[in-house]
Specification:
The chain has about 180 residues and is an all-alpha fold. The protein is built from seven helices and no strands. The protein is elongated and about 85 Å long.
């Protein structure tokens, strides 16, 4: 077994590595008040012993957005809108129910109407129907978000997150079923 010094190891690594082009640091020509009192007008070039490896298309990678990122942002925006619309709709329904209760001078309901009674109560202009529908929309909003996320991950062919999000959806469904009893 031969032992080599750190200097010999460094020289061997340099001999094996591909040739690199040297890059001077980029420093803008800024006025003294922006640079600061002690900042030099231009940085001195680095010592020749330090070599920086730079991707030839670094500017394009940093400045040009990836098309896949735009699609992901669009899907995220749609999911975000579903959450905002669901919250706004449930809030509006519950406020309408409370307002109708105050206008009619009735006592606030102490129980939630059964699912089969919600729409007949709304048609009869009973506040409990609006309040219950507002709660149902509020409960349905995150469920719709999870369903939308599953669809988005299927579209992106990200099977790992399809599985994880489907598991979350399954847990939500089981929670709803257990909660009914």
């Amino acid at each position: 077994m031969t032992t080599s010094s750190p200097q010999e190891t460094h020289e061997a690594e340099e001999a094996e590595s591909p040739p690199a082009r040297e890059v001077a640091p980029i420093t803008p020509d800024l006025p003294a008040e922006v640079r600061g009192v002690h900042a030099p007008a231009r940085a001195e070039p680095r010592a020749a012993s330090k070599v920086v490896h730079v991707a030839p298309d670094i500017v394009r990678r940093v400045t040009v957005p990836d098309e896949g990122d735009q699609e992901k942002r669009d899907l995220d925006a749609i999911v975000h809108k579903v959450l905002v619309i669901g919250l706004a709709l449930s809030t509006a329904l519950m406020i309408a129910g409370v307002a109708l209760d105050l206008i009619l001078g009735r006592a606030m309901p102490e129980t939630v109407a059964a699912l089969s009674e919600v729409f007949p109560r709304i048609m009869a202009m009973r506040p409990s129907g609006l309040l219950t529908l507002g709660l149902l929309v509020l409960i349905a909003t995150p469920i719709l978000r999870v369903i939308g996320s599953i669809a988005a991950f299927i579209y992106e062919r990200d099977w790992r997150y399809v599985g994880i999000t489907s598991l979350v959806f399954l847990v939500m469904l089981v929670s709803i079923m257990i909660g009914k009893g």
